[in-house]
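Human: Can I borrow your eye for a moment on a structure tokenisation matter? Separate attempts, laid side by side, tell us more than any discussion would. Could you pick a protein and write out its sequence and tokenised fold? No explanation is needed for now; the record alone will do.

Assistant:
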Amino acid sequence: MQRGRRKLLIFVAATVIAVVGAWLILWALGAVPPPGQKVGLFKMSDRLADLEVVEAADGLRFQFDGRQLTPEAFAEELRNRRPEGRRGWMYSTLNITSTAGIFWVGVGLLGQVLFTGRMIVQWIASEKEKRSIVPTSFWWMSLGGATMLIVYFVWRVDIVGVIGQATGWFIYVRNLWFVYGKSAD
């Protein structure tokens, strides 16, 4: 087997093993609960899961975390859930509600930078050749960016993002397979 194909297979296998391994570790730690059960040690997303507005005799109440809260008490609860009482622009703009969220949003942003950077790499390569070409680095950047974005979307519990990136992920792997398989044929 050619060296490039081995490199690609190792990358794909390592990615799959890392994702499955992380899932198993989280499951063993009790961080991945069965459906309907609250998350303990680690939350896959910091967003609110269950919120219901109910009508009470003295006005509306928010059913949240097994408690009924007045609108004011609910607003205070949300303010208190911000990490270390921070109320900065970064937390509201990036929708971060915990300190761990900074890491995950960083993963997503870096993945997006890789994903966008691939187009710049392709553009520069095409300009040099004065024709449309797709360099190998385009596919590697696509694969790396898509992998990071899939991990980010899993954390955000965003099935649309996961499906969108996962579909492309297989295409990038297949194109790298073609790239590294050329000289072997």
